[in-house]
Amino acid sequence: MIAKVIVDVPAKQTNRAFDYGVPDEWASWIEVGSRVGVPFGPRIIQGFVVALQEYSDVDPKKLRMVAQMLDLVPPLTPELVELSRWMSHKYMCHEIIALQAMIPGALKAKYERMLSAASEFTHSEVTAEELAIMDYVVQKGQVEFSALTEYFAGNELVIKGLIRRGLLNERQTVKDRMQPKKRQTVFPPSDLGAIASYMEQIPLRSKRQKDVLAFFDLNPEPIPMSELTERLQISSGTVKSLADKGWITIGDVEMMRDPYEGKSFTRTQPLDLTEEQQKVFEPIVASLESLERQIYLLHGVTGSGKTEIYLQSIQHCLEMGRDAIVLVPEIALTPQMVDRFKGRFGELVAVLHSRLSQGERYDEWRKIQRKQVRVVIGARSAVFAPLTEIGLIIIDEEHESSYKQEESPKYHARDVAAERALYHGAVVILGSATPSIESYYSSVQDNDRIKLLTMEYRVEGRPLPAVEIVDMREELKNGNRSMFSRQLYDGIEQRLARKEQMVLLLNRRGYATFVLCRSCGYTAACPHCEIKLTYHQRAEMLRCHYCGYAEKQQLVCPTCGSEHIRHFGTGTQKVEEELVKLFPGIRVIRMDVDTTNEKGAHEKWLNMFRDRQADVLLGTQMVAKGLDFPDVTLVGVIAADSVLNLPDFRSVEKTFQLLTQVAGRAGRHQLPGEVFIQTYNPEHYSMLNAQQHDYRTFYHTEIHYRKQLAYPPYSHITLITLAHEQIPILVQAGEAIVRSIRENWRSWALKNDLETTLNRHLEHYLEILGPVSSPIARLKDRYRYQCVVKYRGELPVADWLRKAMEAVAEQVEKNKMLISVDVDPQSMM
Ligand code: ADP
Ligand code: ZN
Ligand code: ZN
Predict the structure, then answer these.
(1) What is the pTM of this model?
(2) Rounded to the nearest whole angstrom, what is the distance from the C-alpha of residue 781 to the centroid of ligand 3?
(3) Could you report the per-residue pLDDT of 18-56, keeping only the tens digit for each?
(4) Nearest listed ligand to the Cα of residue 551
(5) Nearest residue to 114 (alpha-carbon basis) of 139, 147, 136, 138
(6) How far does the centroid of ligand 1 lie from the alpha carbon of residue 343, in Å?
(7) Ligand 1 atom having least distance to the Cα of 433
(8) Fewest CB within 10 A of the end CB: N or C in the chain?
(9) 251: three-class secondary structure by DSSP
(10) pLDDT digit string, tens, across residues 707-765
(11) Is the dihedral of CA 11, 12, 15, 19 positive or negative?
(12) What residue ranges line ligand 1, CB within 6 angstroms?
């Protein structure tokens, strides 16, 4: 039998499957999706089996054999292997990169170099120093290279010399980064009927042994050793002596780390759906029953009861014997969200998010793989959950840009979900109060491909909160130079008096403080990146958010020596300071990247806020989503414009989405809410439409601009970014790429006789911008250049891009240039 294997080397030459022979003893359990160790050059490396067949074109004398089987059960399914092929094509990445993205970090290969002594070595061959090393290895049998160099510190060269001379043999093996956690477990006698006779055989003085047998007589179940000894107040020696007699057995049992251990979830029952909910639920059920892929866009205002629709759709799906995946944005994956799913489906739910430890993540994943759970809720990468019978995939807050992965593979979870649903004949629900312009456009254009479902009202007729737009230019005119407008100030004061809670939002961390010299205009920037440094007050440091570079705060300007160098701008810390100064005694919880990177911090802050240990929850956009606090009656957005001015065609859309989400946070319960949006662009449609909670009007205005400027959804965009220390090398490669695409485009157009049509209808249109310097012009000491390919119609642009990459492949490799291709980029920076 021959296994076709994709190996763990992301390079052009290895981006294909290699043939390996399968040893007979493994033939029955090797499968498509198995993880194997295979010889590659002088090493053993990890690979994935992507096909099995009877024959190979490789010369049998040269055919090498699979060296290791790494799992009992393959970590990937044939469907996921097929999906990786699709991803590699669509997102132009190596197949191994796509495969690696589908498995948990614990299964990424770790390579170990094992050393053993050559059988025939004589003492005369080695020095005394070397002999000590050899003796040590002989005694151990096998030693890991790094362990040996650590033990004989300072002798690495000597050890390498021994390897080179063949006195030490080196063998590389593949290991997992993480082992399943095991627990010593005691198993009851296999013949329970014999317990009575065992008891009789035990001498009187061994009363404790009798206790153990009596215990199993009542509870004939395996039990962890620690629990048994604890309950009976005995030592493990007592249990072992029974095991020595062969009456009971002790063994290791794999156990699952449970991140929610000890936490109980209140069981909830399906609610009676409102009329509006019923109307959207019915078609979803019909589609689930049809077993054919159908994508729905569920557009429902905040609080319209979308989550209840998700829950009942999942329930229906489970009743049909099929499984479900729920994706939520990482920052919305709050304990509250998890509670709602665990509360309805209990043990059937696995949760995957980045705040789990690697071990916890691995075990949640293994529960999925072993079919112990049927509902997977998680952030982006949970879309790869190895379920085999998927009936439903839900993407909540589908407009969120975090569904697009920024590193390779640069996939969008929405597209991957649609592809998986096609394979499984599953239903996809894209839910949002503010759908992405792209999704909404698709549903308008082609209501068969994406069906639109709408919920316009909040459950139980709760009103949407009143939103007031505050013109900060007026404030300035009236002599108010504070970061709080008069209205917001009064609002805060009132809430404090009434003991109600508030959420204050500072849009995005990019708005944090920077350092400026008032005398000469110098601003502190990262020496490695073309990025302004951000001032962190607690540490009195300036930091680069891209590469991590940090320096002490300067007291005098490094260019002109002036002492008028200060930090400016509004960071969350600054707002906090200001609040404390203006409202003595105010209790503020600040949530931003600095206060939430510790594990569990997120949850801790939110719980404190819920327990009313603070008046204000202040933060970046992570406070805007998914939160549902009954006592919040005021929401303030300090600077609504900060995203609006970014050089990105989605910045208006992002602003509208954020403001609408935020506005939906207030007054979700009995107390009515009030929202203040502070802005310098009070007439902007993103502000006005968010104020009215009017998605449709916003959509029509925005889509009009997209059309005029031929931005998505009226075009496709692919962004190519090149990075290198020297600009001329970048320009040269960038131009070669552009030239290659142009040539292919021209010859294709000629062949298809499109030249004339093109000019007349612009149905098929292609535009290449660049090579030009990227908005972030330098990162980690490398300059960055980009080319933007914008096109419309069914053009084989992916093929042309592939050819263009081939055209520069040699140049890229020789110069060690970094090159990235981003299909449908979410950020143009
Ligand atoms: P969304 O996800 O659209 O923002 P939620 O699902 O969070 O809305 O619903 C808002 C609130 O309304 C929640 O407290 C939820 O429990 C409640 N709710 C949802 N559906 C119903 C229903 N059919 N009957 C009563 N309450 C409901
Ligand atoms: Zn200066
Ligand atoms: Zn930097």
Answers:
(1) 0.82
(2) 8
(3) 999 999 988 888 999 999 999 988 788 899 999 999 988
(4) 3
(5) 147
(6) 14
(7) 3
(8) C
(9) strand
(10) 888 889 988 999 999 999 999 999 999 999 999 998 888 888 777 766 555 554 455 67
(11) negative
(12) 271-274, 277, 300, 302-308, 459
